[in-house]
User: Fold this.
Amino acid sequence: MTTSTLTQVAAVRLDGVTKSFGAVEAVRGIDLELQQGEIVAFLGPNGAGKTTTIDMILGLSHPTSGTARVLGLEPRQAIARGLVSAVMQTGGLLKDLTVRETVQYTASLFADTRPVDEVIEDAGISAIADRKVQKCSGGEQQRLRFAMALLSDPALLLLDEPTTGMDVEGRRAFWSAIRRDAEQGRTVLFATHYLEEADLYADRIVLISHGRIVADGTGAEIKALTAGRTVRATLPGADTDALAAIDGVTGVEVRGDAVLVHAKDSDAVARHLLTHTTARDLEITSRGLEDAFISLTGDAR
Amino acid sequence: MSVSTIDPTTRKVPPYGGFSLTVLSIEIRRMLRNRRTLVFAMVLPAALYFVITGSDEDWAKPVGSGNQAAYILISMALYGAALTAASSGSMVALERALGWSRQLRLTPLHPVAYILTKALVALTMGALAVAVVNVCGFLQGRAEMPLGVWVGSAVLTVFCTLTFAALGVFVGYVVPGENAMQILGPGLALLSFLGGVFWPLTEGSAIWHVATFTPMYGVAEVARSPLTHELPWYAVVNAVAWLAIFVAGAAWRMSKDTARV
Assistant:
């Protein structure tokens, strides 16, 4: 690792990347640039194109059109230099090897790696180093996968739903370790479908839906898109134009006799409805992260 | 503000596509730890050798430059080596199913280096199976052939096992999971009967005509040729053709499969 601010090359650069499987367009044109040292959440529902995009960053598949670069290199070239690692949620281990053998095996495939024993120690698996992988618990196997991923001291680390199955304590410890590494210049891109986790731990959230990036910003910026509340009332023949004219109203929807008003200032809407109209059965609900997520990703599920 | 960054130009690519002796030794250790492999590929052929030569009244009958026990010895070594190699081969598909192949794709290991490693594992295990039967035969003392024939047929046998390593890869891909060996085990036994490995076929008989087209026939003739001094052209064609067919089959299944590693 060297320190340099002049020649900093993007950790990941995708230019107009698309990927089709037959008639199915999994990725419909993604431009993305990740800077070194960033922790980025790749957020989106299942089937949004997250995995397909990650596979292209890892060089496991080629874009149908567009280009993918990792640290200025072809993805396979970056992999060959040990610059990229990935930790998947399941699989990827031989059950009949011991923990130490698995790390040794992986280490011997790279030109340079950190010492095997040191990596085992850091991952907290020295006590089970001689245990067969099949006898390890899910959490122990996950720690082994991390040890393998960190062997080559990668510049880019891709994680798939990294904290699934971890308790709160484990989750906190995990992310503080990730943050320490990011300060040394390691870029971390993690896929998740939980907005909450993305918001808590990422510097930046890239929201993907139907093969496109629909939002890209800090957690606060993404949340701002989701701010506001919904006022619901029974009001036959509501004057939607008058409601839409209220300050801070972002949307009005009529469903039969009910009217739904999305607004930043729900109090103003409620006051208007109760004083100027015959509205009754008033309900105010916060528009929650999941609602926003659904509205951004356009999945009415 | 100065942020630490990583300079990709300081990183090296490993030589020989990531081929490593560490991996080779771990892979061989894995095979040796597998009790099923050991029993079926090493103990069984040796036991069969003892049973057949022990009950064969004609064991001392001369065959080529040796005797009938030597003929049986080479056959059993081939059977054991074929089983071992097939089981090594079938692990390729199993590793894929476990996601290990995907894991390896995230390392500098080149696919050719991976296949080379697997082939070397199959050859080493095949050699070991051949050695076990040969040592047993030597200690028992019934098999007789000149030293050159012992060595020559043993070496030929080891190389013939590549055919079955490829068959193992092929079947492993076609039959998912750990069931591949349940098909390969009885399958190879059947092929060995047809190929004249368990007992010699009467040349010109109906079964012999069928047998000459089966995969074990050619390699068995090739492996025994230093002893018998006989190697019909159709046996060589058989051996080469089946190697080509199984390698092509394995390559076809593997390439079909890379769409989603």
Notes: The longest helix of chain B spans residues 68-97. Chain B has one domain: 17-256. Residues 82 and 249 of chain B are 17 Å apart (CA to CA).
